[in-house]
Amino acid sequence: MNVIVTKDYAEMSSAAAKIVSELIKNKPDCVLGLATGSTPEGMYAQLVQECKEGSLDFSAVRSVNLDEYYPIKPDNDQSYRYFMNDKLFNHVNIDKANTNVPNGMTENPEEEGARYDKIIANLGGIDLQILGIGQNGHIGFNEPDEELVSGTHLVDLTEDTIQVNSRFFASIDEVPKQALTMGIGSIFTARSIIIMASGKNKHDAISKLLSGKITTQCPATMLNLHPDVTVICDEGAYNG
Ligand code: F6R
């Protein structure tokens, strides 16, 4: 596992944006695995900037997002589809038809999971997956548990995650209790993975990841089994 420790959030964002933009330049039709949340926002802002300056071209890029709340309408401003449009897709020259987010309105989550994994397979797998990490060590919405699931599936969010994510909602009661998420196997179709973390509240999860031990109680530790993972974290997340 490569580890890059940056001074702060801004440097973490630049380091990640550089890797993404180099990939797009080398492989214009690359498949990006994308994450939502606070962590990648700065990275998306830099990619938007580069695209506006004309040095980055998203026209052939394809993307698959990690997860989506369930149930949620795509035009709800808390949906991850909305987040992606708002933070990235509306500001770069990506073809939205080439962007994929799990369908938070599906009537059949099981079918939706299978459909989503087929999309990933038909794209030939993911070139670069961007991950954040939950304070509880989740990646995507693969929550700590006795077992982890390989494919894209419906998951019950833990009380921890509902609490942490309530900061984006008017009240905790409005946070969806479930989500569709890529499973560990879906994430592992990625040829390379970047996991980003900023701030002391991520220290515990990052320490477990870097310990080299693997436990389903901290799903990010599964990344120790992947051959090409880069951890990009700031000093707060690294040192605590
Ligand atoms: C988001 C996702 C989550 C977040 C994690 C960290 O698509 O899959 O695993 O990456 O919850 O969230 P932030 O970045 O808001 O701290």
Notes on the protein architecture:
- With 240 residues, the chain is of the alpha/beta class.
- It has a single domain (2-239), classed as 3-Layer(aba) Sandwich (Rossmann fold), CATH 3.40.50.1360.
- It contains 8 helices and 10 strands.
- The strands form 2 sheets. Strands 1-10-9-6-2-3-5 form a 7-stranded parallel β-sheet, sandwiched between helices.
- It starts with a strand and ends with a helix.
- The mean pLDDT is 97.
- The structure holds fructose -6-phosphate.
- The site of fructose -6-phosphate has 14 residues, from loops.
- Fructose -6-phosphate (F6R) is lined by residues 35-39, 66-67, 132-134, 138-141.
SSE diagram, text form:
Elements: E1 2-6, H1 9-26, E2 31-34, H2 41-52, E3 62-65, E4 67-70, H3 80-87, E5 99-100, H4 109-122, E6 128-131, E7 153-156, H5 159-165, E8 178-181, H6 184-187, E9 192-197, H7 203-210, E10 229-234, H8 235-239
Helix pairs in contact: 1-2
Based on the structure given, which CATH architecture is correct? 3-Layer(aba) Sandwich
Spatial arrangement of strands, main beta sheet: 1-10-9-6-2-3-5
How large is the count of helical segments? 8
CA distance, first residue to last residue? 20 Å
What is the radius of gyration?
Answer: 16 Å
